[in-house]
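Much of the work behind modern protein science is quiet bookkeeping, done one molecule at a time. Below is the pair of lines this work produces for a single protein:

***
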Amino acid sequence: MLADRLNKLGTETAFAVSLAAAEWAAKGNKVFPFHLGDINLPTPANVVEAMNRAIADGKTGYCAAAGIAPLRQALADDVSMRRGLVYGPDNIAVQPGGKPVIGKFLQVVMNPGDGVLYPTPGYPIYESQIDYFGGIGQPYRYFQTQSGFAIDLDHLRGQITPATKVLIYNNLQNPLGCESSLDEMAALAELARQHDLWVLSDEAYFEMRYSGTSTSIASLPDMKSRTVILYTFSKKFAMTGWRLGAAVGPDNVIASITKINTNDESCTTHFVQAAGVEALQGDQAGALAILAELERRRDAAVDHLQLIQGFVVAKPESTFYLFPNVTKAMAAVEFTEVAEFADAALRATGVSFCTRRHFGRPLAGESEQYVRFAYSGISVDDIQLGLGKLRQWIEAA
């Protein structure tokens, strides 16, 4: 008999969409993969070469649980410069990816029974880890605007109780693709100070933007001491499978996260960390090329989705996700369940995408229907072809 706590552990259900798409493709059908936020672009060559040199130099054994010194320094320098803050190596705990930061942060700052504010729709691992470690999930919602989505601050305030100890905040958000205004971020910071909350600032997409400049909530007054930043190499450097990230924050929290590193994985792969140093300090041409290609894909996807009757979608300036309202389109093809709509779209057109229900438990009163398109793993040509087929299917109804 397995442990009862496993019943509290969720999953990343977008991978179930991948399975359905793979099964459809295995039957000889063309699939247009908008479902998974992986990147089908190569890691910059100088980063790969740095890894190979590190392997050749014997960097294949154990290393420090907190990360190798050159990478911790490089991360401290880069994060400090881009956020207008001052961090040192003691503020860095290297991780095998960005995702481990979520669970380790919660283990360090959250006791069973503590309340945790988290976004929904949002990255589903927040909800999963809160439940698994015995927290009380307090989901806060968004509302649609002309330019995308905004946090419903009144709803968030109403979720706060004396038990609330943590705020999880994902600016440049997955799956919505939206960004907080400075006023919205300031309001969240004020709530964190007022209620003495720890903050996890998931900044996975901090540099995945096509215009403007990102701001970290940690840079607002009196926020650095209560905020841990989730940093990942996965997006900017197309290193999703390399598994390299970091927790950045107050030294006492980072020391505790490092202790969990020792218990969980001993250390992050040494030669991968050496590649991370090159990614941060070496030639940035490869990273810039990745961003330029993603911008081309965004423009193609937005242009074609906006042509489909019944789709309402904004053009975000960050991430590589689109979250269109498809309520009217579903009605046109006579579907009331969004999962059935997605399955029918796959079979009729080959276009594969996730739905709102893959991003946290829906809240009471949600009536509009949304789906998520990720354009990080599909070429411009296939974006145009696939969304053209989707448009024909919708309009034929």
The chain has two domains: 4-42+286-396, 61-281. The CA atoms of residues 71 and 198 lie 26 Å apart. The radius of gyration is 21 Å. The longest strand covers residues 164-169.
